[in-house]
Design a protein that fits this description.
This protein has helices at about 45-60, 65-75; strands spanning about 20-30, 30-40. The chain has about 100 residues and is α+β, with helices and mostly antiparallel strands. Strands 1-2 form a two-stranded antiparallel ribbon. The longest helix is centred in the middle third of the chain and has 13 residues, at about 45-60. The chain is globular, with a radius of gyration of 14 Å. The two termini are about 25 Å apart.
Length: about 100
């Protein structure tokens, strides 16, 4: 669900709307899969949910064509699981 004009816990932001400018998925070293996201900010667990949704696409549980409707619906239950934080790290912050 997209919430507008709501102060979020732990942040000075008044909106939960975030924009993803770029997303890349590629394989590296053996069986590792890298997911790189570039955006104007990220909400709590947002990257882990995106990664879980992409995993479900890869496993055939979600069709790639469903992604725009899942995002538009704002229904968290339609997205993939929240993956654990193992291997997740911040690469760079630009201002």
């Amino acid at each position: 669900m997209i919430l507008k004009d709501l102060k979020l816990a732990g942040t000075s932001s008044k909106s939960s709307v975030r924009t993803i400018y770029d997303a890349k998925v590629y394989c590296s070293e053996g069986d590792k899969i890298n997911i790189e996201l570039t955006g104007n900010g990220f909400l709590y667990n947002m990257v882990r949910i995106i990664a879980g949704t992409l995993l479900d696409v890869g496993l055939g549980k979600i069709e790639p064509s469903e992604i725009p409707d899942i995002i538009k619906s704002g229904d968290r239950k339609r997205a993939g699981r929240t993956l654990p934080p193992h291997g997740l790290y911040l690469v760079k912050v630009n201002y």
